[in-house]
Task: inverse folding
């Protein structure tokens, strides 16, 4: 009888040890196999957009607005490559030089703002609005115009319509 208790005790001890090791191995395996969450892009304190986009707004300040009804904005571009961009404005300008200065379109980026589009966004679209911040050098690109940023310029519900002809003026950077 004593031998049976000893055998049962040894068996339970071995089973307990195996079970304990198995659980510990499973926990360790789960911890190492768990996918690392991708980092959330840092946002500016006064704009719920990634820092590199928020920085295009004056003092990195913008406000998220959900459109209650369709709304029309303007997009200024000079080539098909920058035609369907994510930066829009409520400001309608007469000359490309005004656009370049007020929307701070650094000419090294290639957008000479020679064409205007009317862009109608559907109700329910979330846009981010604020004032355009200056670009370097601020004497050339002071900003100050209204800026609207959209996350998805490829949304098929967006209506892109050619606007009136722009007056093309030579852009010169004041010294």
Result:
């Amino acid at each position: 009888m004593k031998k049976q208790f000893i055998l049962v005790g040894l068996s339970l001890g071995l089973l307990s040890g195996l079970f304990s090791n198995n659980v510990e191995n499973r926990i360790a395996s789960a911890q190492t196999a768990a996918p690392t969450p991708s980092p959330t892009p840092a946002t500016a304190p006064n704009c719920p957009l990634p820092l590199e986009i928020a920085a295009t707004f004056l003092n990195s300040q913008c406000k998220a607005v959900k459109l209650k009804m369709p709304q029309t904005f303007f997009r200024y571009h000079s080539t098909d490559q920058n035609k369907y961009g994510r930066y829009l404005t409520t400001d309608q300008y007469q000359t490309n030089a005004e656009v370049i200065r007020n929307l701070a379109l650094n000419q090294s980026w290639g957008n000479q703002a020679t064409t205007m589009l009317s862009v109608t966004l559907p109700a329910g679209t979330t846009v981010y609005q604020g004032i355009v911040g200056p670009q370097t050098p601020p004497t050339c690109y002071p900003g100050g115009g209204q800026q609207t940023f959209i996350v998805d310029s490829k949304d098929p519900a967006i209506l892109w319509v050619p606007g009136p002809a722009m007056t093309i003026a030579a852009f010169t950077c004041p010294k």
